[in-house]
Every structure is written in structure tokens, then in C-alpha cells.
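Let's practice the habit of predicting before peeking. Look at the sequence and jot down your guess about where helices and strands might fall. Then scroll down.
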Amino acid sequence: MKRFLVAFGMLLCVFSANAAEPTPPPARRISVFSTSTDWQAITGLLLNEYRGIFKPDAKVVGPKGVVLYYLDGFPCYGLGDGVRVWLGANNKHSGELRIACVYAPETINFSWRNAARDADDATGTGLLTCPVSADGRDLTIDLAKCTFGKDWSEYK
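Done guessing? Here is the structure:
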């Protein structure tokens, strides 16, 4: 009987200790995936594919390079792997900006961060808004004319 009371007392202590410290709820993370909506059917407008051509700028590219992630927004939507581009010094680059648009945009938004070419995908620094000039299906993005928006940490 004495062993039973000791074991019961220890078990009670363990449960009491766990009850005193509530477990915090898990961090909620929402993933956004490209939509499967047929925008041509919804809008009645034809989508066309556009390709981005970048003119680098040293203040944006920095010493290691810059990774740009296209941020979807009407009239354009990113196409698969065509939303991540790395730009470095001396016109080095990897990836290609490919977007589908109802019409050529006048501005385009990116999430950006300075990083080496083969850097892992990580949290970006903030918003970069760039004017666009269109020549047929080619969109020229002159990084010298882009404006830096807030850093992501400044958004509430």
C-alpha cells in the first residue's frame, strides 16, 4: 500500500507540474499557392506571357547580388518557376522572370534580399517597386529607377 501511495504521489506531481505550465499554441503559418482560377474566363480578357529583362544597378544588387521574388498582382500573375531571379555584378544572373498578364504592367513589385547566387531561399528584406517599360512581350526593369518600400518587419 505504501508503494502505491508513493507511486500515486509521484504521478500526481508530474501531472501537476505539466498543468502549471500551459503549452503555447503552435505558430500558425499560412502557405499561399498559385491560384488555379481561370482568370481569362473570369475577366473575359486574354492573358499573354511576358518576360522580364533587368538593367542592374549597384545600389540594389550590392556586393553579393540580389534575389528578387515577383509579387503577384492584377494585371499579372507569376508563372511557376519564373518568379525568382538572382542578379549579380557584371550582368550575371540566374532564373528568368516570366509572368502572365492581361496587359503590360506599368509597375511591378518584388520581395528582395541581398544574397549570393546559390543562397537558400530565406526571408526577404522588404518591398521593391519598379517602373516597367514594355516592348512587345519584353518588360524592361531598370533597377536604378526602383524604389525601396518598407522592410517586412515594419508591416503590422
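How did you do? The two ends are 60 Å apart (CA to CA).
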